[in-house]
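wait is this the right file?? whatever heres the structure
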């Protein structure tokens, strides 16, 4: 694959509906780690890399869309998004990401392709740089690692 020319310096982590319940929500699927744990871990990694990171979770589609639109003026240069259930329903959130033209990675904690058929279509994947699905909460960290250094192999 070609060398990527961007490295992110101002990253937005977007969490869709019901992800505020991580830790207690269907732990057999999503595990025991909370959203606060995930964000704390990403904050540390971002601080080590000396980059800015912001977090936003909301259960409302319009609030997520408004936050994406804000990226047109707040300097965000990379988005890591778990659209949660809106993955499978939201043309509007897809359109917001297409409008701002900011590169993004789509993350899912579970493997959406091994679950119910209605979860096996995403309105985001064809616009995304890449998709991480099924690697648990580690997926967020891997996405951040990629955003920070898309060309680097770590050994
Ligand atoms: C999810 C998968 C979605 O199908 C589901 O609606 C979620 C979480 C995941 O992270 O595995 O809320 O995006």
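ok assuming it is, sequence goes like this
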């Amino acid at each position: 694959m070609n060398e990527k020319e961007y490295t992110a310096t101002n990253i937005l982590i977007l969490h869709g509906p019901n992800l505020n319940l991580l830790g207690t929500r269907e732990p057999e699927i999503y595990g025991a780690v909370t959203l606060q744990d995930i964000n704390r871990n990403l904050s540390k990694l971002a601080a080590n890399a000396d980059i800015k990171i912001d977090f936003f979770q909301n259960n409302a589609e319009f609030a997520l869309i408004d936050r994406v639109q804000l990226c047109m003026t707040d300097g965000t240069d990379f988005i890591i998004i778990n659209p949660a259930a809106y993955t499978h329903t939201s043309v509007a959130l897809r359109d917001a990401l297409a409008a701002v033209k900011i590169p993004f990675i789509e993350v899912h904690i579970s493997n959406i392709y091994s679950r119910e058929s209605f979860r096996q279509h995403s309105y985001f994947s064809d616009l995304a740089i890449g998709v991480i699905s099924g690697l648990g909460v580690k997926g967020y960290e891997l996405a951040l690692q990629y955003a920070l250094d898309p060309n680097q192999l770590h050994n």
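Residues 7-22+33-49+60-148 form a domain with the Rossmann fold fold (CATH 3.40.50.9100). so i think its the right one actually
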